Amino acid sequence: MKNDTHSKGISPLLAAVLLIAVTVAIATLVMGWLTTITRTTQVTVSNRTAEATDCSSASVVIDEVYLDIGFNGTVRAIVRNAGLADNMQLTSAQVYNRTGSNFSGSSMPITNFNRGNVTTITFTANTATDTTIATVCSDFSRVLVTTNCGGVSAEFDRTPRCY
Q1: What angle do CA 27, 28, 34 make, to 5 degrees?
Q2: Which of 10, 28, 57, 113 is placed for a possible disulfide with 84 were both Cys, Cβ 3.0 to 4.6 Å?
Q3: Phi-psi label, residue 136: left if phi above 0, alpha if psi -120 to 50, beta otherwise
Q4: Cis omega (within 30 of 0) for bond into 109
Q5: How many whole angstroms separate alpha carbon 89 and alpha carbon 113?
Q6: Domain 60-162 is found in CATH 2.60.40
Q7: Which one, of 142, 138, 147, lies nearest residue 123 by Cα?
Q8: Which residues pair with 75 in a beta bridge?
Q9: Beta 140-147 vs 88-97: how paired, if at all?
Q10: Count of other CB atoms within 10 angstroms of residue 109
């Protein structure tokens, strides 16, 4: 057998040091990634929990609806925050007539709708399409108001006050 003193490769000590260094580098990268994911998830859950807690006591009602009968018919809905939630947002308001046409409320969305606040949402017809909301009181179907709190909305499907 021939004894070769010129072996090629790295020493076992150097190999062990390199393996430990690579393992520590990979572990540092993975820990940084996991820390970022954990913090992002924690913030998201905290925000959703706060919103759910705020919305747990939310309530909105439509006190009255007025229908001004005329050429296009104008509808005014009186909406009240009847719950205990502050900083609620009215995200949309729709009025429907008996023919199935719907019309959006003006000045939507309404923000900072605090407990006890009352607002009037006005609906007017689009004169460009010649579609009317209601020309007689029986043309009215319903008003629907939705909020930023999931499941918190109000519907008025009674007879409006017609003028």
Answers
A1: 85
A2: 57
A3: beta
A4: yes
A5: 6
A6: yes
A7: 142
A8: 67, 123
A9: antiparallel
A10: 14
- The residue behind tokens 């009847």 is 82
* 110 close to 62: Cβ distance less than 8 angstroms: no
Yes or no: say if 96 and 73 are a contact pair by the CB < 8 Å rule.
no
pLDDT tens, residue order, the chain (163 aa) = 555 566 677 888 899 999 999 999 999 999 999 998 888 888 777 666 666 667 888 899 999 999 987 666 789 999 999 988 888 899 999 999 888 888 888 888 999 999 899 999 998 876 666 567 777 888 889 999 999 888 899 999 999 998 8
Quickly count: other Cβ atoms within 10 Å of residue 93's Cβ: 27
Of the candidates 125, 70, 69, the one whose C-alpha atom is nearest the C-alpha of residue 96 is 125
Measured CA to CA, the distance from residue 41 to residue 64 in angstroms comes to 43
